[in-house]
Design brief:
The structure is a single chain. The chain is built from nine helices and no strands. It is mostly helical and 228 residues long. The longest helix is centred in the middle third of the chain and has 30 residues. The N and C termini lie far apart (109 Å). The N terminus is likely disordered.
């Protein structure tokens, strides 16, 4: 009997283990499966994102490549464009020099024709390529002097129209003067020795440089939009 009572006590201890006992339900929880399914469905519905809302979110977060300051494609295009503008182009430079030189002689011939009509001077090619008719000390000499200086002023407008860069006006003006000096030397058979020729042509070159740089700078400033 004593042995049987001991075994019963052990069984009671095993079945009375608190780990095997059912835990009581917490306050606010029920065993209704319908409510649990509803809550789960609600959570699932909240976790599902519609495709339209996902697309809208992606669109709202996306940044246009043109508006992005760190866009490598835009930077590459800008760098390539600037490199193309500053690239040495001999054909373009030669065509600009030829255009300015040709129009310069055309305008100079027009002014000599003007002097013939209004002042009765003779028309000869020597007035263009020699210094025989240039004189800074006589009134008759200033008729041709004025034609040379007027053609230099017109050349400044040519620089603004053809070259369009103020930093290049010096180069093209000196090139025009150098080519004219070479042609005069070949035509006359010697370098011009008249001080009047040098004074008038150097003065005309200075006028062409200064006026051309002023006109080109005005055009360059006009192309920049000012945002107020």
């Amino acid at each position: 009997m004593v042995g049987m009572a001991g075994m019963a006590g052990r069984r009671r201890k095993v079945f009375s283990d608190p780990r095997l006992e059912l835990q009581p339900l917490r306050t606010g929880q029920t065993n209704n499966p319908t409510n649990n399914n509803g809550n789960n469905n609600g959570n699932n519905n909240n976790s599902i994102i519609s495709p339209n809302s996902a697309v809208n979110n992606n669109n709202s977060k996306s940044i246009s490549p043109l508006s992005s300051p760190n866009n490598p494609v835009t930077t590459t295009k800008t760098t390539t464009a600037n490199h193309g503008n500053n690239k040495f182009n001999p054909r373009l430079i030669f065509s600009q020099i030829a255009a300015i030189q040709s129009i310069h002689y055309l305008v100079l011939s027009f002014f000599f024709q003007f002097n013939y009509l209004f002042f009765g001077t003779t028309i000869t090619i020597d007035r263009i390529f020699t210094g025989n008719y240039l004189n800074v000390w006589t009134k008759e000499g200033w008729i041709d002097n004025g034609a040379v200086l007027a053609s230099s002023v017109f050349g400044a407008f040519l620089l603004a129209f053809i070259v369009e860069k103020s930093k290049k006006c010096l180069d093209f003006s000196v090139t025009l003067f150098s080519i004219h000096l070479l042609i005069c030397s070949i035509y006359d058979g010697r370098i011009p020795r008249s001080w009047d020729w040098w004074i008038i042509h150097v003065l005309g070159m200075i006028v062409m440089i200064v006026t051309g740089e002023y006109l080109c700078s005005r055009l360059e400033l006009r192309e920049i939009p000012l945002l107020l």
